[in-house]
Amino acid sequence: MIDSGGDKLPVLFIHGNSSCKEVFHHQIHQLQGQYRVLALDLPGHGESSRASEPRQAYSMPSYAHTIIEVLGKIGIDKVVVFGWSLGGHIGLEMLALFPQMMGLMICGTPPVSIGADNVALGFRPGVGLAGKAEFTQEDVKQFVTDTYAAHALHEPFIVDAVIKTDGLARQYMFEAFLSPQASDQKLLVETSNIPLAIVNGADDPFIHFDYIAGLNYRNLWKRKVFNLPGIGHAPFWQLPERFNPFLFDFLKQVQ
């Protein structure tokens, strides 16, 4: 876990499917000293161990409960969260579970209702690798290219994170997301008073932009969904110089 320590406002970064905490190094480097910066590897990802009970551990609500437990152990009673992709869905779960959250920014994360048909409203076809347990070498290359853009294949830590991820974390998370027992994240953003910022890459291959823009948000930052031109699913990594001003502005306004 990354924890810069100190008594400043805590900012927590939650990574996406088959990724790791290091993907936020462009943001963490700039924020250290101004905030208490936190980032962790989800169970089954990065340096975290694989779950002993994967069916229970690998779901968005379970990830959220795990993170809240970690925050409690290190004495965090308020936090701003930036969640990317799967991390954004975990952040949405925290809207209901952690009311001390001072703000949430999400990226590549459509807030969808319960059931496969409703999930399909927020996502474009072709996200099948997101729930595939066993990756071939070609799957790894395709996943990295689609998720980060092609030049990410030259970043060893990104490729290694995909390879190291417990394949059951993808399979069971995706199954839980599509199940009738999933959370209604659309309802959460329509009813939560916690400030919510949405900043996507306009070339994100996974998400339906019209769906995201058309929801009735309760407390949407600047009353607008931001889509950054020429950037894909991971704008904070692909072009941090374009993304970071949005994050830093949001942090200043919610503290």
UniProtKB/TrEMBL annotation:
Pfam families: Abhydrolase_1. Its EC number is 3.3.2.-. It comes from Xenorhabdus poinarii G6. Residues 10-237 form the AB hydrolase-1 domain. It is an enzyme of class 3 (hydrolase). GO terms for cellular component: membrane. This is Putative Epoxide hydrolase. InterPro entries: AB_hydrolase_1 (IPR000073), AB_hydrolase_fold (IPR029058), AB_hydrolase_sf (IPR050266). The keyword Hydrolase applies. One of its GO terms (molecular function) is hydrolase activity. The keyword NADP does not apply. Keywords: Hydrolase. It comes from the Bacteria.
